[in-house]
Amino acid sequence: MLPFAETRSGRAAGWKRILAAALLALAGSGTAIADEHVPGAAPRQLGEVPSLDEREALRLSQEAVGRMVPDMELRDRRGKPVRLSDYRGKPLLVSFIYTGCFQVCPAQTRDLYEAVRGLDRMLGESQFNVVSVGFNQPFDSPEAMRSFAAQHRIAHRNWEFLSPTKAQVQELTRSFGFSYVATPAGFDHLLGVTVVDARGRIHSQVLGNKVRADQLGVPLRELLLRHAPPPPNALEALVERVRILCTVYDAETGEYRYDTKLILVIAGGVLFFLTLLVYFGLEWQRQRRQRRESRLTCPPLPHAVSGSTV
């Protein structure tokens, strides 16, 4: 499935697009133009409905990989200021949406929610964060984002809905490699999730209109095994790494589950190691005991007698 959405506001969007195209056509035709300041916008003839240049949008998306996320101050759904740097220390999943969308963005958000719930089994709920960012300002206000989250029942303690200011949108979307263009029916925009590492650098782009847990699990597993959040102690760190390694994606349920075969292999290896450890420990004790007993039972050497006999 292509990672692009032509968002529509209900069934009425179809005839709205036709009407808009007809009205634009009345203005004239024959000159190729591009929407200024809109990354990924396709050049169009005067009279054509704006659309996204898919190849350019993909290029801009991949070009953002390796880029540091700008440390902007946004507002959460309660209106409180939140800096993007506040999310450093853990991997972060970023999804751009707009609340006026009735089909694509709600479906994308619900699919991401199901994927995140599937990832919780493998990674743990506290191992990563998720944010949805409303790019259609000033309409994607904190109140609109709060209503959107409640309407679609997104309930995850590490998932927040953020609103930039209108002046921030251009820099923010460019930094993440997110392309969109306004159309008479809403927006044509890139679909997918940006994966940011714990240091605030874009690690990868997972594109598509239905992001699955296994697609997000690959980069998240890699990031957590490489730079996991510091656990309270070394034992918990070892347990977390083993738990991550011992999970596999189940395509039937759409979630991660524990890989029984791998667990048995690891358990067998640990048991073998412990058996060797016990064996060498007992052997060391036996040899030590033998040396001690040999010193106790060995007869004393005869003393040399000096002088002459009568």
Can you tell me about this structure?
A hairpin with a 4-residue loop joins β13 (247-250) and β14 (255-258). The longest helix is centred in the C-terminal third of the chain and has 38 residues, at 260-297. With 310 residues, this protein is α+β, with helices and mostly antiparallel strands. The strands form 5 sheets. Strands 8-7-6-11-12 form a 5-stranded mixed sheet. It has a 3-stranded antiparallel sheet with strand order 1-10-9, covered by helices on one side. A two-stranded antiparallel ribbon has the order 2-3. α3 crosses α6 (213-226). The protein has helices spanning 13-26, 54-63, 104-123, 142-151, 166-176, 213-226, 234-245, 260-297; strands at 4-6, 32-33, 44-45, 73-75, 81-83, 92-97, 129-134, 159-162, 180-183, 186-190, 192-196, 202-207, 247-250, 255-258. 42% of the residues lie in helices and 18% in strands.
What's the structural blueprint in terms of helices and strands?
Blueprint lengths: L3 E3 L6 H14 L5 E2 L10 E2 L8 H10 L9 E3 L5 E3 L8 E6 L6 H20 L5 E6 L7 H10 L7 E4 L3 H11 L3 E4 L2 E5 L1 E5 L5 E6 L5 H14 L7 H12 L1 E4 L4 E4 L1 H38 L13
Parallel strand pairs: 6-7, 7-8
Antiparallel strand pairs: 1-10, 2-3, 4-5, 6-11, 9-10, 11-12, 13-14
Helix pairs in contact: 3-6
